[in-house]
Design a protein that fits this description.
The complex is a heterodimer of chains A (247) and B (571). Chain A has one domain. Chain A is mostly helical. The longest helix of chain B is centred in the last third of the chain and has 20 residues. Chain B starts with a strand and ends with a helix. The chains are: A mainly alpha (247), B alpha/beta (571).
């Protein structure tokens, strides 16, 4: 994926060394190699369909991945949130723009697993999809017990972030292979849409454009990746300073 | 101890929609102007079509002052404080929120200036809602018309006139007041869906028209026409086709050599001299204190910060805050009632992916007093707006019209089919000031410098809620006429909360007992302090405030130029 910078790759490679485990879970690609085989090779990391963890623990990541896979499941209508790498999007953002939600994920995921064990007799990840759904309905409606601040709030948080990770720009680590945008028929990022393009769209003749905003060279990228200023509470900075910091 | 800087003629606090406009006539008149802006310059390279960054993360590429000072809010003095937001969409940057606003650029209609007298004349004084402090403006639309015209041409507004010199043009808004001439650019282009909505409105006997936008519909002043890429909603423009003050009036003012733009200047207080006149402005840049002396200060931040800075600027002459010896700072506050939308589901794709919020079709038949209220139990009304704005995350978050759960396979099948088939209306409604609604300083919550943030105490009253219900009926009728198969309505409104359309707090009027500034925008108490922004507006009308704010700013600047010697004083 051309929009991942070399710096990102190196950071991810380093993260593998530190955490040592990719996401587990269902994969369309059965030939996936374990990145632990060669954590120092950034080119190799880029080939993985699962990215290394940045903030969640392996256990949390497995659980979150299982949840998003039920929120937007892979089915006859195509790939879902797991295939979009929505959990990876969340994992990465928890160190930046969504850092304020890190404690909510820690306690919410732990509560989900406890609730699953106590009410269904086993871990959430080991339940059949239909039973996972029934647990999630309890969480959604607030009926699930043991959640600080109520289970409904946790559910709403995860669903919101799952949408971001499925339908947001792939630059942020989700919407892998544009599966989210293809699902809703979004014809893609363009910097110019002429009247003729609009008419083509209206006749269903406009070709879908699979691009991230940052595939267009004209835009400053760094602030999108490093731009965690307000939710993370970092000090003020100008766009120029931000640009330098991440360039 | 603050570093005392070299004296200047005028200091403008905030180079956004209002200050960015006022700076131009002042500089052109030969006054030395210093513009203090909390943010920095942003350029087209900063404006990626990135929904996460623009719409969910509060523009992390910008200076985060407004996001660190978000007001607290509660419905009334005895109700609990609402959960505080984490993002305020007002922007700290040169150009301010005009960088990424929707750019709907409306004039107010004639009735909005005369709500009390016109209501009394037509229906009797008993129809003014109880508890409202609404007053006529100190002047009529005709007084502001020349300034609307200047801004429309200087900044650049696309649109279709409906009343040029009293001659009605049915392609435009027949309810607008007479204008000297048409818009400098034709309206933004239409789409198949907007044509459908236009035809539906006509079939109901209404008078639809394309709305005005501070977005170039063609090349204007050597800047590009709109590229319709679909990320205009809280997005900056990558080709400078959105006419923010950062690409129009501010650079033109700088070209005179008379405007000095100071970025990253975080203003903390306005300084008052022993004579009760303002002496200048204190600000911080990277923690270093500066004092900028000036003969005249124009306060041009957003409504909340205008109010807060006055209340924080206490002195011997003004012990309760600057220009507040009559206790009027913070009064007559209201958030525009622009919520309570109606959403519709159509049985066909709308092809809305490459639109923008300012590209749409409007109906003013149910706004202001454009219809007979004799048999109704409210005054005022709403502008119905159908726009072509859609972005992917927002589209996936669509209303499900009670048909499917919020997640899972059924939901997925539903959004796959309907992500481009839903539409949500934007209805701006007459909103009035009330005795019980006001701004003050929060007794507990502080900004990172330790200053209290602004507190909003306000709720929509019966009049606003009745307009909401009435205009929802009209909107549903319009959607059904265009072929909608399902319609849902949002609740009609309770607590006002923090808003991008925030009015009052430093209201304009002739009576110093009930208003902070005079008919020209200058303080009744500190004669060399002018205030710019919607904080001076006493009524909202049913349309976006920015063009009116800009016309008023130009008018205040014009008054200052004409009366320079009197206002600057002899000191």
């Amino acid at each position: 994926m051309t929009f991942i910078s070399r710096r990102d790759l190196l950071m991810r490679a380093a993260a593998i060394g530190a955490v040592g485990r990719p996401f587990q879970g269902g994969h369309a690609d059965g030939n996936r190699a374990d990145p632990r085989d060669d954590p120092g090779d950034p080119e190799r990391v880029a080939l993985q369909s699962r990215e290394p963890l940045e903030h969640l623990t392996a256990e949390e990541a497995d659980l979150l991945d299982a949840v998003v896979a039920r929120l937007i499941p892979a089915d006859a209508n195509g790939p879902g949130a797991r295939e979009a790498h929505a959990a990876h999007y969340i994992d990465r953002a928890l160190g930046g723009a969504l850092a304020a939600s890190r404690p909510a994920y820690a306690s919410g995921l732990a509560a989900l697993d406890r609730y699953s064990r106590s009410s269904r007799g086993t871990r959430f990840t080991e339940l059949a999809p239909i039973d996972q759904d029934s647990v999630l309905i309890d969480v959604e409606t607030g009926a699930a017990t043991g959640f600080a601040g109520g289970s409904a709030a946790f559910f709403a948080l995860v669903l919101n972030h799952t949408h971001q990770g499925t339908f947001g720009d792939p630059y942020y680590g989700g919407n892998a292979n544009f599966v989210g945008w293809d699902l809703i028929g979004y014809p893609g990022i363009r910097t110019m849409v002429t009247a003729a393009d609009q008419q083509k769209l209206e006749r269903n003749e406009l070709k879908t454009n699979h691009k991230s905003a940052y595939d267009y060279e004209s835009f400053v990228k760094s602030s999108a990746r490093a731009g965690d200023a307000h939710e993370g509470g970092s000090p003020q900075r100008s766009s120029r300073a931000g640009a330098k910091a991440g360039a | 101890m603050a570093t005392r800087l070299k004296d200047t003629d005028v200091v403008v606090i905030g180079l956004g929609a209002a200050g960015g406009v006022a700076a131009l006539p002042l500089a052109q008149a030969g006054l030395d102007v210093i513009g203090l802006e909390a943010g920095a310059w942003l350029t087209r390279r900063d404006f990626a079509p990135d929904e996460l960054r623009n719409n969910f993360r509060g523009w992390p590429q910008g200076v985060q002052k407004a996001n660190q000072e978000i007001p607290t809010a509660r419905a009334n003095a005895s109700s609990p404080t609402l959960p505080r937001g984490t993002i305020h969409p007002m922007q700290n940057a040169v150009g301010g929120t005009t960088l990424h606003y929707w750019a709907q650029s409306w004039r107010l209609n004639p009735w909005d200036f005369k709500v009390v007298s016109e209501t009394t004349k037509r229906y009797g004084s008993s129809r003014i809602p109880k508890g409202s402090t609404v007053a006529d403006w100190p002047f009529a639309l005709e007084e502001l018309e020349p300034y609307y015209d200047k801004v429309e041409y200087e900044v650049g507004v696309s649109g279709q006139a409906g009343n040029v010199g009293g001659t009605i043009d049915p392609r435009g808004n027949r309810f607008e007041g007479p204008r000297k001439r048409g818009y400098p650019m034709p309206p933004l282009r239409s789409t198949e869906f907007l044509e459908k909505m236009t035809a539906a409105a006509r079939s109901l006997g209404w008078h639809p028209f394309p709305g005005p936008a501070a977005v170039n519909s063609r090349t204007y002043q050597n800047r590009s026409g709109c590229m319709y890429h679909g990320f205009c909603n809280r997005g900056g423009c990558h080709v400078d086709a959105k006419n923010s003050t950062a690409v129009t009036t501010i650079p033109r003012a700088q070209a005179t050599g008379r405007l000095k733009v100071v970025t990253r200047a975080h203003v903390t207080t306005i300084e008052v001299g022993g004579d009760g006149r303002v002496a200048g402005v204190n600000y911080l840049t990277d923690g270093v204190e500066y004092f900028q002396p000036a003969r005249v200060v124009l306060l041009a931040s957003f409504t909340y910060e205008n109010t807060r800075l006055l209340l924080l600027s206490k002195s011997k002459a003004y012990p309760n805050g600057l220009s507040n010896n009559h206790g009027q700072v913070g009064r007559h506050y209201f958030s525009h009632h622009q919520g309570a939308p109606v959403s519709a589901l159509f049985p066909f794709d709308l092809k809305n992916w490459y639109g923008l919020p300012a590209q749409g079709v409007a109906v003013d038949n149910w706004a202001d007093d454009n219809f007979d209220h004799s048999g109704l139990d409210f005054i005022g009304g709403g502008n119905l707006w159908a726009m072509s704005d859609r972005r992917p995350i927002a589209a996936a978050g669509m209303n499900t019209f009670g048909r499917v759960p919020a997640w899972g396979s059924q939901w997925k099948a539903f959004v796959k089919e309907n992500a481009d088939r839903s539409h949500s209306s934007y209805i701006q409604k007459t909103t009035l000031p009330y005795e019980e609604n006001y701004l003050d300083l929060d007794p507990e919550v502080k900004d990172p410098l330790g200053f209290p943030v602004c507190r909003v105490t306000g709720e929509f009253k019966e009049n606003e809620r009745k307009i909401a219900a009435f205009t929802q009926d009209k909107m549903e009728q319009w959607y059904r006429a265009a072929g909608a198969v399902a319609v849902v309505r949002a609740p009609v409104g309770g607590a006002m909360g923090v808003s991008t359309h925030a009015y009052g707090g430093t209201r304009m009027g002739d009576n110093a007992e009930t208003n902070v500034v005079d008919r020209y925008g200058f303080s009744h108490e500190a004669p060399n302090l002018g205030i710019l922004g919607a904080s001076v507006m006493g009524t909202s009308g049913a349309h976006n405030p920015t063009l009116t704010v800009q016309a008023l700013a130009w008018r205040t600047a014009d008054h200052l130029i004409r009366n320079w010697k009197t206002i600057r004083g002899t000191a």
